[in-house]
Amino acid sequence: MKKNYSTMDSFARTQLGHLGTKSALYRIQWPTRIFAFLGWIGLLVVGIYYPITIGLALFGVGFLNYVLLLSFRISNNFFTKPTTDSAITGQLPSWPSFSILVPLKNEDEVIHATLRSIEALDYPQYLMQVIIVVEETDQLTRRSLRTLTLPDFFKVLLIPALPPYTKGRALLHALPIATGEYITVYDAESRPEPSQLRKAALALVGAKETTCFQAKISISNRSSSWISRHFAGEYYEWYERHMRALSAQGLPFGLGGNSFFLSKIALEKAGAWDPFNVTEDADLSVRLIEQSVKLQLLESLTTETCPDSATNWINQRTRWNKGLFITQLVHLRRTLLSRGFGLEGWSSFWLPMISSALTPFFNIYIPIFMIMSDLSYATTTVMSISLWLLLAFNLGCSWVINFKTYRQLGIKQSVLGIFWDTFRYLFLHLSAGFKAYGEYFLAPMHWHKTDHTEPEQSNRPAPAPEAQFSLS
């Protein structure tokens, strides 16, 4: 690669050398993006000259996508054997040490509750090392931190403000100074339950480097807006149903961005984080699985706030969609025969991700195609009626699943209100999906900062001198 990287962060440059073609940087260079763009243009041109052939082909792929995604949701919600939360209790002759990495960027008082939650973890403090990673130029976060009196086992690590400006780059800076046997990550809005480290230690002690445990994540501000209400339902379905089902069967899944626990040895062996991928968690999941590290659900809960406005939601989901698309470009084909996946594991990991990435486009394409083609509602052929019923069945199942999820979360919403939430949420997905693909071509490493809100107001602590910090 001939591009000049003299202004790149040195840790990112070194990591690029370690990861090689497994880094996202090799899939976001201009030649690759131009080639992908020309592919879209080529499909459009062929569609103009052969509209029926291309139209029916896309239609078939779209309906197959609907059936695939719906089958996952129906299976997880109605046909998976219920499992009970097995309490993780016990004592160890010697508890392992943990390094907790907390990357922050442009955060204000919202981080106070997070740091208090970490400090309140029921675990020997001499076995905890908390590394707060902040860019040198991030005055907002540094001012907010100066209002806190941090315990001795907290350390603030200042890193240069150099590209790429990603969470993965920040975590790479913290890894060399992490002294814990095990590593975990908490975000600015993470609120782990007090017993989480003890549960993780008990689970990890027998697994050593062979397993990575992911705690469940729940949304705490579910009542702040209809968006956060539906977002909470999404997370509940993902962690309590989809991820739980895969974990019970020993099948791989994508890690969340925080509250996962693994040994430092396993993390380094897998290559740690890719600083050029805006969804570093999905990328890390792939490389852990390739190293035969088993992913399992930990029966522990972390609460966090989610975006409650359309703009904030679309920006966050744009980054997720873009990063997942890039992750597929990097790893999808080459992992098909990977020893860590296997065919069943490959399918359970990748197919839901592929299906979710395609859904925004087919949500627009299929109804338009059916109305404008001979499959319109005005026709009475068996095929047209069957296809319209299948589309209605898909929407109906989504409605029923969301209704079930709302009830289990204790969200009070009318049946029509749930349907309206489901319908509006589709348009948010459409916006984020198209924006993500546009950004892949124009700004593949742009990081949309999620604005975090604190649902409960807390008293602002008195300012403390900067000398309390351990700066590196």
From TrEMBL:
Belongs to the glycosyltransferase 2 family. The lineage of its organism: Bacteria, Pseudomonadati, Bacteroidota, Cytophagia, Cytophagales. One of its GO terms (molecular function) is glycosyltransferase activity. This is Glycosyltransferase, catalytic subunit of cellulose synthase and poly-beta-1,6-N-acetylglucosamine synthase. InterPro entries: Nucleotide-diphossugar_trans (IPR029044). Keywords: Glycosyltransferase, Membrane, Transferase, Transmembrane, Transmembrane helix. The keyword Membrane applies. The chain crosses the membrane at residues 30-50, 56-74, 349-373, 385-403. The keyword Chaperone does not apply. Residues 452-472 are annotated as: Disordered.
